[in-house]
Amino acid sequence: MSKFSSAIGLENINPTVFSKSKEREILPEELDDNIYEELNVVEECKIDVDDDNNFVKVHFTPTIPHCSMATLIGLCIRVRLIRSLPERFKVDITVTPGSHSSEIAVNKQLADKERVAAAMENSNLLKVVNQCLAMD
Fold first, then answer.
1. pTM, full prediction
2. Which residues cross the membrane (predicted)?
């Protein structure tokens, strides 16, 4: 026990310990094909494609302003487009202005090519991204 924790009474001498719950597998019939559109995460009006200038811009809207998955959602959108579009296209993924409490930080992470490349080299994160993309 540290001096600090005992001084302010943070030591729990009889903690309640819970067992980890089993992860639940979501069945395909439980998934709705249009869920992202229904939640307005991705809307056609917030997607700009400029074929002449080889540019695609997507604004996405997290379901809540403090969504902890915003960066992952943006990364999944970026990966899907990179895998689907010809290499000539530059892809820009951003949070819809005013829709997230950490909008600037999320957009900065999604625009950082080195960070995105490092994320795709992380086998655990790549597995999650691939699982997200396999749902559609």
1. 0.72
2. none
